[in-house]
Amino acid sequence: MTSEYGRYRIVEELGKGTMGVVYKAHDPQIDRMVALKVLRPDRVTSETFVARFLKEARAIGRLSHPRIVTIYDVGEDHGTVYIAMEFLKGEPFNDVLRSGRLSLCECVKVACQIVDTLDYAHRNGIVHRDIKPSNIIFCEGHDVKLTDFGIARIEDAGAGYQTQAGEILGTPVYMSPEQVMGQTVDGRSDLFSAGVILYEMAAGRRPFTGNNIAAIFRAITNDQPESPANMDPFIPKALSDVILKSLAKQPEARFQTGRQFAEALETIQPMLQTPLASESPDRRVKRRVVLTGAAIMVLILGAGGYYLLGRNAAVPPHAQVNTTSSAQQALLKINSDPAGAQVFVDNIEKGTTPLDLPLALGKYELRLSMPGYLVWEGQVQLDTLNDTPLNIPMHTPE
Asked: What are phi and psi of 120, to 5 degrees?
């Protein structure tokens, strides 16, 4: 491994991609750490490419936004070109997505940050073309920073179709239909990619899937994704509609600017409960609960922080509920998929699913645990003596 590029001294390798390698490096001139992206020598195809690369990288370096990673410098050395960028302390957003630890409220806030940042870049003539979770850094305070901003565009400069085809193999699920079909893209393509990320955050799975690249591309260009509100009763229809609009096949049917997208999300935020942060991240799971009891309130405590009131329930989610025991008892019928989950009520083990529990009217802490599956936790308020079914899908860690 080369020990330095230009004045930058390599400290360690941070990661590799299809276009090059990213290093942690030291800039002795001003005594700071940088992230140094070095293009693979085989990507440096001609002097024309290098000249355009340097010109466009400097143009992107003029972007100044708190959520765009700053480019400090570009240069040539050892037969290739490099970019010195801001070194961030944070977590790749794809790791955050896999953890499932964000509440729905937090998901919407993150999406707002992403599309608002894209709006700034688009207004300054820069299209990213490679918006995906691994190009987003999740920093302290739940702020995000977009990386490789415009780099995908630079790296494709002058490339032929074969190079572009090679590039899309890595992250096809976040590409827009026009990008898949090799058409000219603009900022609305970036917003489509952001919509895919928001769908994945909210629904817990990607909107377009397939067993191979061709199947994924076919889904992106032809298939209508399932409504997130149909998949999860805790997702407001208004949010589901915004997500589906962002995934429209035709760019004209999507949000035309990042600001439009952000404004639509901002109107939804008041509908969402403030997330609770006390739950351990490794125990959080996005819960999808099928509720058929007419008078039951479930307050989800972890990934979501959302609430659902049954038709006869009248207690607001923030209210204190009288949990005084009553001689009268309701029957809570708990099922899980798969069956066999241990059931704890107020931290007392009650048995395994399927389980019929006679309980006095009131509020209870409920937890389901099963080896190999994420723990489900919630609060259940029983307000009537009717039988109340509670059906809980258990989810495996991704």
From this structure: -60, -45
